[in-house]
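Something for you to look into today, if you have time. I want to see for myself how the chain folds. Leave the record below and I will have a look.
***
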Amino acid sequence: IFKFLGAISVDLGQDRIKPYLPTILTPLYRELNSNYAEQDPTLKNLSQEIIELLKKLVGLEAFSLAFSSVQKQANQKRAMRKKQRALQTVANPDIAARRKLKRHKNKAETRKRKIESLRPMYKAKRHRSHTLKDLAMVE
């Protein structure tokens, strides 16, 4: 997709690409600022190259305006999601409590996995669920 965006940008030229610049920059910006674990470095390099190509194609001033608008829009979306999450915590405390318990449980499991990988002889205790099914006597 990034190669396609770069090819279309070059093909359209300087004047015809300007209205589409924010649309083209949005996925490139998202890839540059992503910080998830399984990130492909070649994809990040490709997006950086296409951004440099666009910068040379449309000029620094037009590029900066479009890039700052994309950046501003992404920050607004991030803030809106954060605000929605905070409001949901107040509106639905039971859902928020379940999410928090799940997060803590995942954190503990991650810690146990990390300890086991560092010290192979050590086996961390696993949490046993105490549901009625587990407590029932099986013959």
Q: What stands out?
A: The mean pLDDT is 87. The helical segments are 2-17, 21-33, 41-58, 60-91, 93-118, 132-135. Residues 1-118 form one domain. Residues 60-91 form the longest helix (32 residues).
